[in-house]
Every structure is written in C-alpha cells, then in structure tokens.
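Limitations
The structure tokens in this dataset are predictions for the assembled complex, not deposited experimental models. Users should treat interface geometry with appropriate caution, especially where small molecules or nucleic acid strands are included. An illustrative entry is reproduced here so readers can see what is and is not provided.
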Amino acid sequence: MKESEVHKTLANFEKGLKENSYDIPPSMIYTYAALKMGIPYANGAPNLSCDVPAMVELAKLTSTPIAGKDFKTGQTLMKTIIAPGLRARALGVDGWFSTNILGNRDGAVLDDPDNFKTKEVSKLSVLEESLEPDLFPALYGDLYHKVRINYYPPRGDNKESWDNIDIRGWLNYPMQIKINFLCRDSILAAPVALDLALFLDLAKRSGMSGIQEWLSFYLKSPQAPKGLHPIHDIFKQLNKLENTLRYMAGEELITYLGQDYEV
Amino acid sequence: MKESEVHKTLANFEKGLKENSYDIPPSMIYTYAALKMGIPYANGAPNLSCDVPAMVELAKLTSTPIAGKDFKTGQTLMKTIIAPGLRARALGVDGWFSTNILGNRDGAVLDDPDNFKTKEVSKLSVLEESLEPDLFPALYGDLYHKVRINYYPPRGDNKESWDNIDIRGWLNYPMQIKINFLCRDSILAAPVALDLALFLDLAKRSGMSGIQEWLSFYLKSPQAPKGLHPIHDIFKQLNKLENTLRYMAGEELITYLGQDYEV
Amino acid sequence: MKESEVHKTLANFEKGLKENSYDIPPSMIYTYAALKMGIPYANGAPNLSCDVPAMVELAKLTSTPIAGKDFKTGQTLMKTIIAPGLRARALGVDGWFSTNILGNRDGAVLDDPDNFKTKEVSKLSVLEESLEPDLFPALYGDLYHKVRINYYPPRGDNKESWDNIDIRGWLNYPMQIKINFLCRDSILAAPVALDLALFLDLAKRSGMSGIQEWLSFYLKSPQAPKGLHPIHDIFKQLNKLENTLRYMAGEELITYLGQDYEV
Amino acid sequence: MKESEVHKTLANFEKGLKENSYDIPPSMIYTYAALKMGIPYANGAPNLSCDVPAMVELAKLTSTPIAGKDFKTGQTLMKTIIAPGLRARALGVDGWFSTNILGNRDGAVLDDPDNFKTKEVSKLSVLEESLEPDLFPALYGDLYHKVRINYYPPRGDNKESWDNIDIRGWLNYPMQIKINFLCRDSILAAPVALDLALFLDLAKRSGMSGIQEWLSFYLKSPQAPKGLHPIHDIFKQLNKLENTLRYMAGEELITYLGQDYEV
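Predicted assembly:
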C-alpha cells in the first residue's frame, strides 16, 4: 500500500475512517486507536502503519512517541554491520547477492514475488544508505544488489542466509567475502520487541513525542521526517541511542575526540 | 622479544646501543635513527620497534609523531567489524575459530608455531577488547578463540580466511556465522601504509608528537600509554580519526545526539 | 516444447517438414539434416532436438549414432557426484537447495522464470534418479529440492554455485553439507563438447547407431529408450563408458568382484 | 607404532607375548585372543592391531575373517566421494586444504601434533590413491594436501569440517570448491560399526577368512595383501561390496556394459 491523500493529514484520516476508506487497513486503525489514547506504538513489520503524516501529526498532538519500521534481525543486521565496515576502509563494492532459506509461514508467503515486494524494498535500501554511492561513485556507483527469499520447509524456523559480496581494493583488484548465517528468526526478533517496548515507555515518561529516531538501531527502515535520510549504519545508530540515554540522564556525551581513551 | 630494562628509558637505551645490547634488534636501531632526526615513524609489523617507553620518550623529545603496530588488513579487519556488531546487539559469543591459508613467504614463516607466537597474540587480543568480557561475563566470559595460519603454496599471494563464530541469542539459543574472505594481502596493506605516511606527515606539520592513537584505525595492536586500553572497534577508531581531523580543521564534531540527522 | 504427433514417427515428421509445422523448431531441422546425411549428432542444450522418436528412427535408418541432452558441467556435476555418495552410505536427504549466480547472457535469460522452466526440469530430475526414493522412501521419500538461477552481472562468466544439503543420519540425527563452487562455465563445457565429437566419430566408424547411452557421462538428461530409466550416477556412467571402450577394444571388463585388486 | 620383527610372523609374535615384548600393545593382545578363538575382528582405529603379517597369518590359520582400519565417516568420506568425481572428469587438483573443529576428547587428543601423526597419515593417503598421480602427473603430480584437526570445545561432539579444493580445468583455468560439513561423528560411526559386525559374521559363516577387502567401503585405510594398492574410491568399494554379496548369493554381477540399463 502506498501513501495517499487520506494519509496526508489527521483531518483527512479521520474523515476517511468515517467513510470506511479502502486505503485504511486494520493495522492503521489499531495505530490510530493507540495514539489517540496516548499509548506509545512501534511497527515491526514493513507496512505503512505509523509511517504516514497523519499518524505522526496525531502522535505529536497526544504527546506520544512512535517508532518504525521492520525489525532488523538477521541478514540485514549483518549487512548494516559489514557495509559500514567496507565503507570505513574505502573498499569498493561491485555486487552483493543475498539469499535466504526458511521453512515457516513467513517463508511460504515471501517466496511469492508479489508478497516479497515490500520486504525487498526494505532490504535493498539499507545498502544504498550505508555506502552513500552519491558521495563515492567510483566505489559504490555501480553496485548490483539482489535479495532472494526461498521457501524451504525442511529448515522450519531455522532461517539460513548466504551472502556473496564482490569487493574491490586498491588498483581495482577484485576480492570476495561470503557470509553464511545459520540463525533463528524469532530468537533474534523477540529481544528487539522487548527493548522497543521498554524504551518507548521511557520516552513517554520523559515527555518525548513523535518519531523516536534514536530507536532506529532496531529497525530496517527507520522513519525519518520528510526530506531527511535515515541512518542505517548500526554503529552510528548505537552511538545515537547511547548518547540520547546519556543526555536524558544528564551525563556527558562520548565524542572520541583526539587523545581520549575509553577507560 | 619482550620489553626489558634497556627499553625502559632513553638513557638505558642509548647506553645499550653503545654496549651492543642483544635486546636491541636492527629494527629498533632504525626506529631510533628516524626519531632522533625528527622523522615520523610507523610500525606495520607485530614486533616491538617503537612500542617501548624509551622510543616514546625520544619521540616526545624531538616532537615526532609515531604510530604502531601491525597493519590491520584482512581477517582481523573483518573481526573488528563484526565483533562490535555482535556486541552492539548483545549477542553472546561462545567460540571464534579463525583459519587462514596463504602461499607466500609470510605463510611459510608463520606456519611454524614459534614464529606464529607474536602474530597470534596480536590477532587474539582484538576480540577481547571489542567484546569486553569483564563487563559482560554472561555473554563473553567463556569464549574459546583460536587462530591458525597454514602455509598453502597453490594459493600464492591470494590469502583466504575462514571464520566460524558460535554465537548465542536470547534464551541461550545457539546460532552460527561463517565468514569466508578471499583476499589479496598486499592489496589490502598498501593503502594502509600510504595513509599512515600521509597522516604522520600531517601530524608532524601540525605540531603533534608522541603516540598518535587517532591512527589506531589502521592497526591490529594500537599503541597506548601505560595503563590504558587501546580501542579495537573499527567504528570508534574511525570516529576518532574523523573527529581529530575535524578538530584540526577547526570544524564541529559529530556526536549523533538525539534528534540530529546527517544530511 | 513438448513432444507431439509430428515427432512420433519419421513419416509424420517429414510430412510436418513439408507442411511447415510450428512444432518443428530450427534446431530440429538441423538435426534432421545431419542424421539424413549420416553425420553423428549430439545435443548439449536441454531442448528436444534429437530426443524424439522420429529422430531416433532416422538415426537407426541411416546407421548414425546420437547422444543428448544438456551438458553436465558444474553444479549438476557436483550433484551427480555427491548424491550417489550419500546413497552409498544410506544417508537420508530431507532437502537440497541449489542457487547460482552468473553474469553472462545465459544468466540474463535464465533469470526469467519462464525461460528457466526447461533447465529447472533438467536440473531437478538428476537427484530423483540417483537417490531412488521409490526404493528408499524412508530416506528420500520426502525430499524438498529447489534450484535457482540468478542473473548477477559483476561476476560475468565466472559462475558460482552454493548448495545446502540437509541430510539425516542414524537415529534420524540431522546434519548439513554446504558446497560452494567457484567455476567457469565455458571451461567446464568445452572439453565435454570435444569428447562427444571424438566419441561419436568413433561410434560411427565402429558401426554403432541410435542412442549412445554409454555417453550419458557427459549429459544432465541422458536419452533413453522408452520405458527405461537413464542412469545419472556419474560413477556408473563412467563405468559404462570405460567398459564399452574395453569391449570395443576386445579387452576384459572390470567387475570388482570379491578379492580382485586393481593393480 | 611401526611394524617390527615381532609382528612379522605368528611364531615371532607368540614368542614376543611370552617375553612381554614392548612392541605388543594391549589392543594387539586383544586381537590375538579374538582370532585365536576364531572370532571375527575389525579395527576401527588407525593403529596397527590386525594390520600385521602375524595376525593375518593367525586369521588364515583359524579361518577367521578380519577387516581394518580406521572407520571412514565424515570429512574423509566426502573426500573419497569427491576425489573420484574430479578424477572422472579429468579435473586437475593443485591443492586440498582440510580443517576440522571438534570439542570432544578425540579433538583434545588430536590437537597435539604428535598424537595427530597416525591420523594424518591415514587421512592424507586417501587422496593419492583416488587420484593416481603416477598415471596423471599433469593433473595430480603437484598436489599440496594439508589436513588439520583443531580442538574447539564450544562445539562438543558436533564436528565440523571445512575443505578448500583448488582445481584446474581445461587450458589450466583455476577454479575452487569449498565443502562445509556440519556433522556428528558418533552418528556417522555407529552404523559403520554395526554393518561391519553383521558382515564379518556373514563372512565367518560363509567360510571366508583372512583380510576381507570387500569391506573396504567402511574404512579409511583398508588392509591389503603386501604389494597391492587398496582401493579408496567409495564407488568402486561399494561395487566390490555389492558384487561380493551377489556372488555369495549366486546372483549375476553388474558390469554396466554398453547398452545395459539398470531397470
């Protein structure tokens, strides 16, 4: 579902609710109910839910913090760890091929190309943000990025991912990195859900409202105010999370300037 | 070679030079000559060279910047990218097995257990620093870390590493990550040597002297003043490098506080 | 293209030629021309060409040897090596996931699901034949076999395959095998084409005609007379090839009975 | 322990027993007792036990069948499956690097280079036999084969092997195969022990005695009469096993000649 008129303002949305607009899915009604009552809300799926102007407006109105979207847990987690690492060392990337096998209901659904569309956009975008091809076209301007999800019943819930990364070093010499991750999707997701609940509660009690971008650490597609790029680099995300907590606690921020050591 | 009396002070060292002390290897004489003349010096190998109090004292005396030791290029680079990532998400690590195959002279030498000793210490230490087992004994207190280097002539200069990481998630569920890195050692090392030359020259001209820990980004065993822990996390190292350059240029530092975006 | 009436007999086929039948593709006209002139013919692609009764009839008529189809070169080669090995040791197989990345024209074409159909059937069938699930339903009766081909330009002609095999041992304990094959498609295919040319010429000069199943060693989908199962196990195929050559040379066959040694 | 005078003849051996010879280990006394009583004996370890002329002589004397040595279960099983496959297609092999990690007592013992010696010889020999470098020096004459076993406690009994094979195709183009096998050593070994017990009992009751080379299918270092090369290729071994059973049952042997199909 794409953003449309009924999502643009709170007034439009409430009018749409009364008129049973087709563009308001059940999940968004749930979001509206929570925010109306001032209950913090986080979205762990890749759908719109609170990622529309109408909901952001409502959140601000009721002084409610929100966060979204799409929990970052396995293969994409590894991507947002490694891509910044390659960028840090100015290693060029020519191609990144990611494939997954899983045998639960998620896998059966996502194996179909149409259902995979939203997830694919979510998964593909993280790379472009971390590597910043506009700033470094020679290194990342010609990157072929492909993601596949395959339904594979024998594995059940034990998801497995295989990534092949074609990188380029000095003098354009090609090299390769392959990552094989044997994981358990729910085990990686559960603590993320828990943390978000705890931190959103903290944000509410601290008087913070609207998009909590300092929680982007947990999300594949962090919400951002219009016109700004969300950060995907997990280390910058962690730094933001920690510095926000330090700020809330009245502590000094860590900047890693020059001669400082972390003792 | 371990640090001994002749390395403790500049006076001891110069006395040792006159007396042809066995504890002063040729590489250290070279270091002494460079620092005496005020020429910046960096150590890309895992040996002592400038990592002794006598040389640090001399560097300060002649206002010369130094950096060391052991270029961080391939497998260890990946380690200092991934370990912080695992720590960021509080994923426990039970074991990390690293093996390498290479067919150049480095490989032939390091295949012998005795020659491997210094390299092994250097390679093993990075993990302990990134994961901080003292702070998180439940996650990293019982980590079996093993590194092997194998001489393998068919591959020549095309080094290959294979890492198996046994991690633990929520409720102690075990998972595994395997990293296969097909690289070229000299291609990864050359730009590191070049960068260090350029930045040490900049440091000299900027009036900086002694250990340049902001260059730890390039090193497996960054030198640190006695009693302080060097940082191995490549992202903190990069942050330190960049913020030092910003500071030198009179720019504002990036702290990633709360609502800030990097536009 | 599936077999139809016009392919069933030579008479039907020649009538179809005169009538410009849509079911006779250019490749099959080429086959007809060669066999009519008594020139041996082999099919390295997965299409029908000489794998129809009409062509087999013509081959017998002109005493011409034929062989087909689909060169067995990389990932499938590994499959027909490993599957028999697992069967030999009665290791059960629950799932076999095969994925490929390649960047040449083959890859661009096969990336589309429709074009992939013929190749997929060819690639999927080899497993069922080697493992014989009808004979061993407890071991191979519930096998999930999936093959994917992905267009990946950065790699060009350097095809790479990744296979994940979920096997089961004694007491049903699950185990896994992963095969990563970095190969070059044309380099693996060229010698196959050359061998087939040489052996078909030998067959012709030896007075052999019709389907040369002793050349199945080189093919993914070996042709077989109606009602018989082709053999895919590469070692049985090799044994057949070698014993046929021994037979043609008047030599004794090797049977590996009891106490014999191969000296 | 190497073969010496006391092992050369039964007479020497019995004299050695009386004299408490240091060259007769407890396992060999056990072998002697079993064979003396006509009880079939198989050796699943890489030590000498029944692989000496004295024991072979005793076995013949008491009409007892014997088999040995060193169960072939995991990584070496894969080796004797794949090496013949590469040889079948005349793919050259420049290097084969095998590494293992395991955390049980086996691993702790074998991690020490001295204890590893016998196992290493056993594991290294299989490749030379399968590839026959004397017959094909251009393909296999310059092969660097290395095997490592690493003690790795976190994995316990769940052994894991990683093999890197550097192969060469037509026109000398290099390619690579990597095999990652996550297995369970005892699960792979138990059925081997069981089969050997059953088949040795059958051999005894069928009046067969001495070395049962048709059971080489289960062994890494199959015993062979002096001067003959044992076969390691698992498919030839299986063929030999099956043809021997067919022979014993009065059935026809399978030779895979020319036009035959296995229906």
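Some entries come with short summary sentences. For this one: Strands of chain B lie at 41-43, 65-68, 92-102, 144-151, 160-168, 174-182, 210-211.
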